[in-house]
Write a structure and sequence with these properties.
Blueprint (H helix, E strand, L loop, with lengths): L1 H10 L7 E7 L5 E2 L1 H5 L11 E7 L2 E8 L7 H16 L3 E6 L3 E5 L7 H9 L9 H12 L6 E8 L9 H5 L5 E6 L4 H13 L4 E4 L5 H12 L3
Parallel strand pairs: 4-5, 4-7, 7-8, 8-9
Antiparallel strand pairs: 1-3, 2-3, 5-6
Helix pairs in contact: 1-3, 3-4, 3-8
Length: 227
């Protein structure tokens, strides 16, 4: 666990937590927004001074992890690194793992540190078939519990489902779903991952090897939640 967290922190050494800009008026704290202030009708009062401050993004993210039988050894360790990156950069991260069935490892709204999150991911035995539909259904259920402004799923999978319903149809039930297509190119997996991202109104990322996964997830967090 310590090695996984250390690796995640090294990758994030110069990264900042995602924020969004919010316009406020004096005397709230913030940087002076001269353009917005000049647009106010004159004569100015102190309350007409407009400022910009950065506030944390109000987002709940559910990481949906493929931990079926093929996910053993180094692969599951790299998935744990990627999940740690999410938790280190985002305030609210839930986790759903799936094999033949879905397993909620961290619920939406559950306060959990990065170390315990990694422990829970590593404790899941790689077993069973690949039921992407079950994982997405559980993620959709978790996101319905959230009252935050943004509710997002991030799916890490090779896209090759061998049990369950069509995951492309299920992807459309999430408020938004981004997909990281993992591993060797497989025509069925590529089609399914592309279809899920489109149905979920999200982006599609590609990690050609599992070693690429942590850096791809780091880039995804920067692009998706930078404000």
């Amino acid at each position: 666990m310590d090695a996984i967290l250390a690796h995640a922190r090294r990758l994030l050494r110069h990264a900042a937590r995602p924020h969004r800009a919010e316009e406020v008026g004096w005397p709230d704290a913030g940087e002076l927004d001269l353009e917005s202030t000049l647009e106010r009708p004159r004569p100015w009062a102190p309350a007409d001074l407009r400022l910009t401050r950065l506030v944390p993004r109000e987002v709940d993210v559910v990481a949906v992890l493929d931990l079926s039988l093929s996910m053993t050894g180094e692969k599951i360790a790299l998935v744990a690194v990627a999940t740690a990156i999410l938790r280190l950069r985002l305030e609210h991260v839930a986790v759903v793992a799936f094999d033949t069935n879905a397993h909620v490892l961290v619920r939406v709204g559950e306060e959990l540190g990065p170390r315990e999150l990694v422990r829970r991911v590593l404790s899941v035995p790689a077993q069973g078939y690949t039921n992407i539909d079950a994982g997405l259904s559980a993620a959709a259920s978790q996101l319905r519990r959230s009252s935050r402004r943004e509710r997002v799923g991030l799916l890490l999978t090779d896209g090759v489902a061998n049990v369950g319903e069509d995951p492309v149809r299920t992807a459309g039930r999430l408020p938004r779903l981004h997909v990281v297509h993992l591993g060797d190119h497989h025509p069925q997996g590529a089609r399914t991952c592309r279809g899920m991202a489109q149905a979920g109104r999200g982006r599609l990322y590609r990690a050609r090897t599992y070693a690429d996964l942590p850096d791809v997830v780091r880039r995804a967090v920067r692009e998706l939640f930078r404000g």
